[in-house]
Amino acid sequence: MSLVHAYTASSATAPLAPGTIERREVGPKDVLIDIAWAGICHSDIHTVRGDWGEVPYPLTVGHEIAGVVAEVGSEVTRHKVGDRVGVGCMVDSCRECANCLAGVEQYCLRGFTDTYNGTDRDGTVTQGGYSQRIVVDEHFALRVPEAIPFEKAAPLLCAGITTYSPLRNWNAGPGRKVAVVGLGGLGHMAVKLAHAMGAEVTVLSQSMKKREDGLRFGADHYHATSDPDTFERLANTFDLIVNTVSAPIDLDAYLNLLALDGAIVSVGAPPEPVAVTLFTLFENRRSFAGSKIGGIAQTQEMLDFCAEHGIAPEVEIVRADQINEAWERVLASDVRYRFVIDASTLGGA
Ligand code: NAP
Ligand code: ZN
Ligand code: ZN
């Protein structure tokens, strides 16, 4: 057991504050990672603020981790000391159920272990990446290719894979019209990835404020959803809409934008139930689906794809003492486009 510095939530409302957390001893199949960078995902905020239910405090969040392997267990074969690795939303799963065997550990039928607010093997609550070090099973540590700037690697482990997975699974590519709703952390990755896959990409954002950015990230079109004309002009247009919005949206209005056999895939995770008018689904044989992060193999595929295509998130580096301010900016949709914590500022020697 070792103690490491962290930035920790003590309640749903108190600002995060410096503290320490325990990391387990390195087991035979574990790697110890010195965390260099930790991304701030909107899910961190939903979790701590209790949007998704009660959580045990104190809790350290963060599931976009990039770091360097500092120690390996005796049976580790995938990684060695000094390797650049990433850890996303999962730190364990049963590895035996049909879904784990199919490489979609995020749908482990026994439930995967979340990087934070999960139940660890020893029964303790898992603690996340706003910390100096983490110990994980080697299976859940990804290889970060050299071509990806290290400080930009962390957000790929959640924002990257969560958008890559539905784009791949719903066949974004040449000849397909893809819309991305919400240009935040996930949304801007969806735009870059869909463009690199060859799709015709449209951004649907609340305002025109980020238009230049959206086009620079590879979008072919950009529209404001605050303009009712947008919904008339774009009716029956898209093959795929990836919804990344962290708040409820008027799903029927967006369903109307789908062409024949089009699908809306929601990754945005507001807690409220959503209303869908079935008659809107009947038209154009539309569908409405959800998607959760991505499996380990697909996460590695995404990292390699980003390296090959020169794709990385737009990041704003923050010190530990700026995390609370960064959270407020995320909540105000004022993130350009992912905050990444410099883990060397988390305190202690
Ligand atoms: P983010 O950076 O805050 O981006 C969300 C974007 O949604 C904002 O930038 C904004 O874009 C838009 N938005 C926010 N509030 C809105 C409102 N009231 N009405 C309309 N649009 C609004 O958040 P993120 O980190 O990308 O995460 C997005 C969501 O995905 C969160 O709910 C998060 O928990 C969830 N998530 C899910 C998974 C999964 O596996 N399914 C994984 C990671 C995250 P514009 O200003 O451009 O409109
Ligand atoms: Zn996340
Ligand atoms: Zn399983």
Spell out the key features of this protein.
2 domains; binds NADP nicotinamide-adenine-dinucleotide phosphate; Rossmann fold; 349 residues; alpha/beta; globular; binds zinc ion; seven-stranded mixed sheet; six-stranded parallel sheet; 11 helices; Quinone Oxidoreductase, Chain A, domain 1
Number of alpha- plus pi-helical segments: 11
- pLDDT < 50 stretches: none
CATH superfamily of the largest domain: Medium-chain alcohol dehydrogenases, catalytic domain
- Number of separate structural domains: 2
Describe what you observe in this structure.
The structure is a single chain. The protein has 349 residues and is α/β, with parallel strands linked by helices. It has 11 helices and 17 strands. The strands form 4 sheets. Strands 3, 4, 5, 8, 9, 16 and 17 form a 7-stranded mixed sheet that branches. The protein is globular, with a radius of gyration of 20 Å. The two termini are 18 Å apart. The site of NADP nicotinamide-adenine-dinucleotide phosphate has 28 residues, from helix 1, helix 4 and helix 5.
